[in-house]
Amino acid sequence: MSRYAAVKRDTKETEIEVYLDIDTPGNVEVSTPIPFFNHMLNSMLFHMNSSAKIIAKDKENYDDHHVVEDTAIVLGEAFKEALGNKSGIRRFFSIFTPMDEALVLVAVDISGRGMGIIDLDLKREEIGGLSMENVPHFFRTFAYNAGITLHIRKFSGENEHHIVEAAFKGLGISLYEASRIVNNRLPTTKGLL
Questions:
Q1: Keyword set for this entry (predicted)?
Q2: How far apart are CA 7 and CA 88, in angstroms?
Q3: Measured in whole angstroms, how far is the alpha carbon of residue 13 from the centre of its chain?
Q4: Which of 23, 105, 164, 183 has the most CB atoms at less than 10 Å from its CB?
Q5: Would you place residue 186 in the very low, low, confident or very high pLDDT band (cuts 50, 70, 90)?
């Protein structure tokens, strides 16, 4: 039985729709007005082994901030909803993801507590319409709304496309592995995640 969610957010600034199935590898469709963001979300969802659809519309066209932030909110909510009661999940996972000269650590704890600690040391202004200041903002906002603890840290890298892509791929892999059902108990001594 697949774990999935469909979440929509409609504000004066954006309209975001997300469908996410975390147990069925399949089609990934991403459409936002930000080309590099589309590329990163596609990479992340592909490495999550998910079926997914993200449609994001920018109603005001100020800049990329609202689309990135609201997509992170809705995608985070969808992931949290798809997890269900979290019974039997692995909960923790971490990976060093290389991409050519770049090496990025991503560590995930499906803790029920949203927190993102992001250290990518990005210097470039933007890539393909995505402001580099919005990369850590996306990760933090996603983590908060997904109810996960997320650490992302660059260990090496000069090409910022490679650094950012390693982070998104590492997040996809980590979310997939941490959300796998490995037994029939809740993975906490507290009795609640």
A1: Amino-acid biosynthesis, Cytoplasm, Histidine biosynthesis, Lyase
A2: 24
A3: 21
A4: 164
A5: confident
Residue pLDDT, tens place only, 134-159:
999 999 999 999 999 999 999 999 99
Average pLDDT, the chain: 97
User: For residue 87, how many C-alpha atoms fall within 13 Å in the half-sphere facing its CB?
Assistant: 3
Helices (H), the chain: 35-47, 65-83, 134-146, 160-178
Amino acid at 46: F
CA 190, chain centre distance (Å): 26
Residues composing the chain:
193
Residues 6+ apart with CB under 8 A from 47: 169, 172, 173, 176
Give CA–CA dist 34/98, Å, rounded.
24
Q: In 63-159, which ranges are continuous DSSP H helix? A: 65-83, 134-146
Angle at 160 between CA 158 and CA 162, to 5 degrees: 90
Give how far Cα 149 sits from Cα of 6, 43, 58, 123, 154, Å: 22, 21, 29, 25, 17
Question: Of 10, 39, 51, 56, which is closest to residue 128 (Cα–Cα)?
Answer: 39
- Domains by residue range for the chain, with CATH: 4-178 (3.30.230.40)
- Tokens read off for 82: 């798809």
CB 176 within 8 A of CB 23: no
